[in-house]
Amino acid sequence: MQKLLKGKPIALAINKVSKSLIAEYNLDPKMLLIQVGDDPASSYYVQSIIKMAEHLDCKAELLTLSAKSSQQDLIKTIKEANADPAIHGIMIQKPLPKSMDDSYINMCINPDKDIDALHPLNLGKILIEEDGFLPNTPAAVYYTLKYYQIETIGKHIVILGRSNVVGKPLANMLLWKRPSANATVTVCHSRTTNLAAICKNADILIAAIGKAEFVGPDMVRDGAILLDVGINEKKKDDGSIGYVGDIDFNSCYSKAAAITPVPGGIGRITTSLLYLNLVKSNLIAKNINKTIDEYLNMIFSENQ
Asked: Which of 79, 194, 200, 262 has its CB surrounded by the most CB atoms within 10 Å?
């Protein structure tokens, strides 16, 4: 196992399978991206998703609603996309305006077009270990563990963060009775006592709390594996803006057996997984259902 766990080779392996499936089954995957308002950070991310579509033989259409749009406006747009057979996947760019109910919006998306895997049906399938869509960031962590052949069976994995988007689904995935899972999982959050001591007891520490460089060397045991899900803006000495993770990379590097960089680590994989979900949704529309293990075998067969 190498020390720096880069996301690029994993993303390329996923992209290769997506393109292969598109060619094999003569697919025409189309994603609808819905953005409410024009937040610069959100717009940058959306444009990066659209740009990747060209390289993967997919289509990505952006529909931008005014920041003054109502929740009913957004729901109407979602229902139209649900009913459109030419649209295979729907992604709602977050964050939404505070006037909108995220949970309710997620429930309005057709579960078979829910390529972000935020619908309760898709999240529930993770809990009971049924095949379905996987949320992109938790899946990126799982794929990283599998790609770099990191032993998880019986290991103590600590997750910092209990969000519905990352922490909770990831915890359940790591409890699966599958390779790259079967772990003993502790989920920590803002009310956890003795946080540093719990983190220091982890064989694998996963940071997903959205606080820049929160994890320092006092929270990491020697030889731990560190996976950083966070991406936070940080002003450099010259006044420019850079990006760092939730783990203080420089101070923790020497203590870690392996560590993901930010940028270039977990985040590098997520967009590729979004498109893999899009391909999967196109296959479902053709009544072709492949299991999670089938996708994993296709992606990792050349690397294991």
From this structure: 262
Q: Give the SS3 label for residue 290.
A: coil
Q: What does the alpha-carbon distance between residue 139 and residue 78 come to, in Å, rounded to a whole number?
A: 25
Residue 302 has pLDDT above 90, yes or no: no
141 and 211 both lie in a single domain: yes
When divided into structural domains, the chain yields a total of 2
Query: What pLDDT, on a 0 to 100 scale, did the predictor assign at position 303?
Result: 58
Residue 194 vs residues 128, 200, 207, 248: alpha-carbon distances, Å: 31, 10, 16, 19
Which ranges in 148-218 belong to alpha helices (H)? 167-174, 195-200
Q: 123, 150, 102, 114: which is closest to 260 by C-alpha?
A: 150
Residue 58 identity (one-letter amino acid): C
Question: What is the token pair recorded at 266?
Answer: 């977990």
pLDDT at 242: 87
Helices then strands, counting H and E runs in the chain, come out as: 11, 10
Report whether 168 contacts 162 (CB < 8 A): yes
Classify 2 in phi/psi space as left (phi over 0), alpha (psi -120 to 50) or beta. Answer: beta
Q: Give residue 216's identity as a one-letter amino acid code.
A: G
Query: Rounded to a whole number, what is the largest CA-CA distance in the chain?
Result: 55
Helices 136-147, 292-300: axis angle to 10 degrees equals: 50
Beta bridge mates, 36: 65
Same domain for 76 and 179, yes or no, is no
> How does the average pLDDT of the chain come out, rounded?
95
Per-residue model confidence as pLDDT tens digits over 54-111? 999 999 999 999 999 999 999 999 999 999 999 999 999 988 999 999 999 999 999 9
Domain-terminating residue out of 78, 111, 144: 111
CA 138/CA 159 separation, integer angstroms: 11
Q: Beta-carbon neighbour count of residue 245 at 10 Å? A: 30
**Closest to 203 (Cα-Cα) out of 180, 179, 184, 188:** 184
